[in-house]
Amino acid sequence: MSTRSAAELGAANHQSFFAARAEVSGGIVRHEHGGTVVVTPQGEAMVLFPTVPVEAAAEFVDEQLALFGRHRPLSEIGVWSLDAAGIPALGAALAEHGFDWGWRPNWMVLDVTRLVVDHPRPSGLVVAEANDHWWRYEARLDGATVGRAILHLCEVDGKPVGGLYDMEVDDDQRRRGIGTALAVAVGERARDLGCRSVVLNATGPGEPVYRRAGFAKLGEQGQTWWLPGDRFDQRVG
């Protein structure tokens, strides 16, 4: 049985998801210091959850930025960390290169045995499921797509773990139970595929949606940093 925390399971699933997305699109994936570095052809660059010794933080950042510099133009560079001991040194090294301190990951986790499936929903709502590189969900109402979500599975310590990504509901269809219906569909499929848990990184407005489906809030753990692509271009010339 895994001894990792739910946030660590979330970090592992995030690494797997963004690596898979980069690979599918023909991008670059590297694994360093226990983390994952990705660059997509669409200009997305990320460093996901490395554990970097304090004394190596500046060198590590220089190496990643050299890689990203060879793949410009980029829309944005993001760095995520769950390494509490290393966050100050990594943050300082990133700030030297113009990164902004960003939001902290707001983790939530679903124990699939506690999935709550009975919720009000609009009459005629259909949640359609498709499986290509991951499980995709579309909420359809009166023939129109009004919401979307993705379930990504990975193995952590030999056990499947689900991750919920890219949840969105059209602005004019919110607060009708559509987001909760999507979260339930994701939870049911993850349960059927043998997952014990589903993890996600929630926005503030999204938290109540996930709670209704049975997700529990873990709180903010970790840190992100962000550098817009145009600012990166200005710094590297």
Task: Describe the structure concisely for a colleague.
By secondary structure, the protein is of the alpha+beta class. The chain has helices spanning 6-24, 57-69, 87-95, 178-192, 207-213, 229-236, and strands at 28-32, 35-39, 44-48, 76-81, 100-101, 106-111, 126-131, 135-141, 144-156, 159-169, 197-201, 216-220, 223-228.
Describe what you observe in this structure:
By secondary structure, the chain is α+β, with helices and mostly antiparallel strands. The chain has helices spanning 6-24, 57-69, 87-95, 178-192, 207-213, 229-236; strands at residues 28-32, 35-39, 44-48, 76-81, 100-101, 106-111, 126-131, 135-141, 144-156, 159-169, 197-201, 216-220, 223-228. The radius of gyration is 19 Å and the shape is globular. The termini are far apart. The mean pLDDT is 96.
Helix content: 25-40%
On the 0 to 100 scale, the average pLDDT is 96
Share of residues in strands: 25-35%
Q: Give Rg in angstroms.
A: 19 Å
SSE string, helices as H and strands as E: HEEEHEHEEEEEEHEHEEH
The coarse silhouette is: globular
Summing up helix and strand content along with how strands pair, one would put the structural category as: alpha+beta
Side-by-side strand order of the widest sheet? 7-8-9-10-11-6-12
What's the structural blueprint in terms of helices and strands?
Layout: H1 6-24, E1 28-32, E2 35-39, E3 44-48, H2 57-69, E4 76-81, H3 87-95, E5 100-101, E6 106-111, E7 126-131, E8 135-141, E9 144-156, E10 159-169, H4 178-192, E11 197-201, H5 207-213, E12 216-220, E13 223-228, H6 229-236
Parallel strand pairs: 3-4, 10-11
Antiparallel strand pairs: 1-2, 2-3, 4-13, 5-13, 6-11, 6-12, 7-8, 8-9, 9-10
